[in-house]
Amino acid sequence: MRATFRAKFGGEPELWARAPGRVDLMGSHTDYNLGFVLTLPISRDTWIAARATGGNEVRVHSMNFDADERFTLPVTSHSEQWGNYVRGIAATLPLEGFPVGGCELLIQSTVPVESGLSSSAALECALATVFEGLWNWRLSPERKAVLCLKAECDFVGVNCGILDQYSSCLGRQGCALLLDCRDLTTRTVRIADGIQVVICNTMSRRRLVSGEYAQRRADCEQGAAALGVAALRELTLEALAARAGELPEQAERRCRFIIAESARAAELAIALEAGDRAAVSQLCAESFAGARDLYEICSDSMQSMMEAMLHAPGCIGARQAGAGFGGCMVALVESSSVDSFRLSVRESYGHSSGLAPEVYAVDAAEGAQLMEWSMLA
């Protein structure tokens, strides 16, 4: 990155920042319903090297895409794909009283794009962090997450929940986080020794600026409104069953999944801390079945990957990750079996799908932070 920064911008970076991606261990689509999510900020992250230049021009280069972005402040227009997230943060922060000026930015990420591991949130949170350092203002991690979410919803146009940005900003090394999306509070969760989180990328990409994600959210909002609550977080499965006839069939199925999924997030936190493998297996199986049959966010590639994971050595439990519709999935694996699990999944999924999956272990990572050169050298 340092060499590329010199080549692109003719000098040395002034500051560095990084922010992690995340995988939800349990809690698909519960965040915008103000429920619980068990999230793991992961050891795949986005790095930014930056230098303030004065003036009002922002120049950006992405090493992942070998592509450039250039715009002037204040931001008055949108761009395509990754550049829109940069513009979104640069547009949103000044409106909230946090100035941004001319600068040069170099971006490099190990979070796979459009795969369900929050590459966009990692970029947003790393950008907000490096802007903090360049212009000497400070945000609490919670406030930073909220503003990054605002940029994604209002500028980029993805009406998502707080999960991704909160995970990226408030990650704790060595811990999963049980996030209460209503109160924006967390409890740290230490996964029992001997259990390893493994990401299994179907290599089938998905995009959230589409009708499917928005329709799921609309179904949930319809159900909550019909039942007279502000969010599905306020309902139990028993309360839903008593009034299920008041809802359209599709909305009822969506609501049933979300209410059960939120409860499973809290239950999985307890099971993982205790090393209760039977409970982990059951909760993951219930989550995937609900995602497939009730929320309908599974694809053929996800079903093939699920079969490959469940039949691989050492698999304790496996389920969808992120919003679904393709992308990555997650498995909880006996630490002693990670290598054989990886080889088995690659062979089995490759045979059934014709695709070459990425399979790799991840650990819990620290949230967004400025980095000193001495820490990197």
Tell me what you see in this structure.
The structure is a single chain. With 377 residues, the chain is of the alpha+beta class. 42% of the residues lie in helices and 23% in strands. Strands 1, 2, 3, 4, 5, 6, 7 and 12 form an eight-stranded mixed β-sheet that branches. A four-stranded antiparallel β-sheet has the order 9-10-8-11. Strand 3 and strand 4 (67-72) form a beta hairpin.
Strands, count = 12
**Helical amount:** 40-55%
Give a quick account of the main beta sheet: strands, pairing sense, barrel closure. Answer: 8 strands, mixed
Helix-strand pattern: HEEEEHEHHHEEEHHHHHEEHEEH
Low-confidence stretches: none
Query: What CATH first level of the largest domain would be assigned?
Result: Alpha Beta
* Spatial extent as radius of gyration: 21 Å
What structural class is derived from the secondary structure elements?
alpha+beta
Number of domains: 2
> How many helices does DSSP assign?
12
Mean pLDDT, to the nearest integer, reads 95
Strand content: 15-25%
Shape by Cα distribution: globular
Based on the structure given, which CATH architecture of the largest domain is correct?
2-Layer Sandwich
CATH level-3 fold name of the largest domain: Ribosomal Protein S5, domain 2
